[in-house]
Specification:
By secondary structure, the protein is of the alpha/beta class. It has 10 helices and 20 strands. It folds into 2 domains: 272 residues, no CATH class; 58 residues, no CATH class. The strands form 2 sheets. The chain has a 10-stranded mixed sheet, with helices on one face. Strands 3, 4, 6, 7, 9, 11, 13, 15, 17 and 19 form a 10-stranded mixed sheet that branches. β1 and β2 form a beta hairpin. It is globular and about 70 Å long.
Length: 438
């Protein structure tokens, strides 16, 4: 039995285990029919031309963990941003861990999707927002909708801001020979509210893990959202991350994606600008080695005038790694005075590494300022020679150039502790110790 058939047969058991009166029951039923019709995406589709899921479909993944796992904080502390105080929503093998988490309902709601689905006090938010911006056609998104049961629920009311940032951490322990996880996150930030979120998926095992994650983010008028995705997982862990963002007038949403590890990572990041004077930022740093594969697939849809979007992705690829960047900007006819920027720069430090990049613009307005571009190259030999002539060893000189290459992405990080952590990860990936911070 292949993975698609196993999922379809498992859905019947899943339905019997959840409340049929659940407000998303009908959505689940419709979604599984959609997935049954479409199946897993293949390289025959243009959007998946350079990324194949065939190897994952041959693995006998457990759809539901057979037993709960317990972890000690001291064993996983390094995966948290422990340098600052944060709210924490932690899942172990897809199951919420109250012992490792710190949630709140003090003016804001930082809790669980399972609670939001079952408690009447959350029903209005679920009815208004859940599955409203997520794609009804993208097959892995519909698969997640069909099996949605648990994840992070974050609701920030009007004029509110949480007292501290929020961390979402998904851990896989290896109790299963191979495990598939399908977390679902909903983030609603009302008018003039603000939130900072750090998300991480982390496997603690060499067993296969396949995570199919969906996040919906709604930023109302004048809202401000900072979202950081840290991807530095084991070489047996695969992640497909679909994030959908709806913005209203004057809102600002920034998403930074740091991809440093994992077997196969696919990041689908979709921004929909549904108002004027909106600012959207999409930035990322990728450093890969071995046979790792990371695919960044972005969309920014400018549907109203006087808005901005800024995309800047940097990639460093070594050994036999593969990188993909496929970015699209759509500017509707009504969206005059749009300012859209898209850039993808890549460095290959191995003759066997591969990068496929495809920046795209679809512009139907005539009074806009839009630009896009991509570069693929190697380190500047003259700059490297200059640093070495000043007594800096080759390895450290190479690291300095790498840091400089990624700097304009890191400088927009607004949580200093996140920036420090990313600097340390980059230094570790490059195998050097650098006595400064960007």
């Amino acid at each position: 039995m292949d993975l698609k058939d196993k999922l379809l047969s498992s859905f019947l058991a899943f339905e019997n285990s959840v409340d049929l009166e659940n407000p998303v029951h009908d959505l689940r039923s419709e979604a599984i029919k959609n997935f049954e019709e479409k199946g897993f995406p293949s390289k025959k589709e243009e959007a998946w031309k350079y990324t194949s899921l065939n190897s994952l479909q041959k693995v006998d993944f457990s759809i539901f963990p057979k037993e709960e796992s317990t972890l000690e904080y001291k064993d996983i502390k390094k995966y948290f941003l422990h340098e600052i105080d944060t709210y924490k929503i932690v899942f172990v093998d897809g199951v919420y861990s109250s012992y490792l988490s710190e949630t709140t309902h003090d003016g804001v709601d930082v809790c669980l999707m399972s609670s939001a689905f079952t408690k009447p006090m959350f029903r209005q938010v679920i009815d208004v927002y859940f599955n409203k911006v997520a794609s009804k056609d993208e097959s892995l998104t519909t698969l997640n909708t069909a099996f949605c049961k648990e994840g992070a629920y974050i609701y920030i009311p009007k004029n509110k801001m949480p007292k501290k940032p929020i961390q979402i951490l998904h851990l896989a322990t290896g109790n299963e020979a191979a495990l598939m996880l399908q977390p679902r996150n909903l983030v609603v930030v009302e008018e003039n509210a603000e939130v900072q979120i750090i998300e991480r998926h982390q496997s603690l095992t060499e067993n296969e893990v396949f995570t199919n994650s969906v996040t919906e983010i709604f930023a109302a008028k004048d809202a401000n959202v900072d979202y950081y995705k840290v991807q530095n997982d084991a070489n047996t862990a695969s992640l497909v991350d679909n994030t959908y963002i709806s913005q209203k007038d004057n809102s600002v949403v920034r998403v930074h994606t740091f991809s440093f590890g994992g077997k196969l990572i696919r990041n689908n990041l979709n921004f929909y600008q549904n108002g004027e004077r909106i600012d959207s930022t999409l930035k990322g740093v990728t450093i890969l080695g071995e046979k790792q594969h990371v695919d960044h697939h972005t969309l920014v849809h400018h549907a109203q005038p006087n808005c901005e979007s800024h995309q800047d992705y940097k990639g460093i690829f070594g050994e036999k790694s593969t990188g993909v960047f496929n970015g699209k900007i759509i500017v509707d006819k009504i969206a005059q005075k749009t300012n859209a920027f898209q850039q993808n720069n890549n460095i290959l430090i191995s003759d066997k590494a591969t990068i496929n990049t495809k920046p795209q613009l679809e512009i139907f307005a005539d009074d806009v300022k839009c630009s896009h571009g991509c570069t693929i190259g190697q380190l500047d030999e003259e700059a490297l020679f200059y640093l070495r002539s000043r007594g800096i060893p080759k390895k450290e000189a190479t690291a300095l150039l790498m840091y400089a290459f990624a700097n304009n992405v890191l400088e927009s990080v607004r949580i200093p502790e996140v920036k420090t952590r990313i600097n340390k990860i980059i230094a570790n990936k490059l195998g050097v110790r650098v006595g400064f911070e960007l």
